Amino acid sequence: MSPGRRPGTPRLLRALNDRAALELLLAHGPLTRAQLGEFTGLSKVTASQLVERLEQRGLVTHVGSQAGGRGPNALLYALVADSAYVVGVDVGPTRVQAAAADITGKIVGQVAMSTHDSDDPVGVVHTAVTRALGSAPLSRLKRVVLGTPGLVDPATGDLSFAWDLPHWHQGLLGALREDLGVPVVFENDVNLAAVAESRQGAAVGVDDFVLIWVDRGVGMASMINGRLHRGVTGAAGEIGYLPVPGGELPTGASPREQGSFQKVMGAEAVAGVTDSDELARRLALGVTGACVVLDPSLVVLAGSVAREGGQDLAERVEREVHALAPIIRPKVVLAEVDTDPVLNGALLTAVDAAREELFES
Prior knowledge:
Elements: H1 10-28, E1 31-32, H2 33-40, H3 44-56, E2 60-66, E3 74-79, E4 85-91, E5 95-102, E6 107-114, H4 121-133, E7 141-148, E8 151-152, E9 159-161, H5 172-180, E10 184-188, H6 189-200, E11 209-214, E12 218-224, E13 227-229, H7 260-265, H8 267-270, H9 276-294, E14 298-302, H10 304-324, E15 331-334, H11 341-360
Parallel strand pairs: 4-7, 7-10, 11-14, 14-15
Antiparallel strand pairs: 1-3, 2-3, 4-5, 5-6, 8-9, 11-12, 12-13
Helix pairs in contact: 1-3, 2-3, 4-5, 6-11, 9-10
């Protein structure tokens, strides 16, 4: 046996079978023991033992019966939706949005709160999480994922720099985990928008794409071979610092000094731009810079500036990119997840992690 390979022990095989059954119930809804056996290739006895194990763990319950041929009706089994909960949080400079979902991904509660009068991020997150959960017990909370602007250190998982969140600091991750008593994860907000777009929007089924976020700030998320690329320091995608024509270059070494592309394409910079060709030209500078490095098949434009420009802006940007760099031919489209994309991405990420924990335990 090669090093690193796990032997096919009965315990491992049971765990694999349990996971397969749970994933089938998630995908297809209530199933009988016979159907679970048929879909997994297990014998009737093994499928029955599997169901009993999952019932004992509180993950599966019978929800009705199905008439068959001869003999008694077969019991139908379904995943226990409230066996676990997760919370996704979208943290902005002036407000926090949070949504709670059960293990099936169904949203069970949502809340939005102002952060104008608070300098206590732990208290803000705690209140948002508990309000989103509502009557759902905190003891069944398995994961909290927070989407924030700025950099998340891949080595520690902590925030290393957040322009718009002066009270959010290094060491906050540990404080939140201690306060809530569950795994808490920070993720860059634009990365989470890309997760939502890859699962529910214009990038479904696309392994290599970039999402360009054009709002108060500008940023980019890169999905390469189906995985987010964060970089060594978490700064991959900070294209606001990209030097572009027309954008004054920074004069110092402070990360708080706006970068060149931010100065020409941030919401404040384009507020007075009424010429759609000019807007497309500016945006294409940053898009082209990213695309000649990564050569993606798809570019998704997201954020308030992109939404206002609509599909016409996407088409104009595509033409500009092809003109600036004819060696690349990315398709440029408007984001389809235009309602709470960061929150949606946080929930999807949290549900995935909670299922991984439950299904492998």
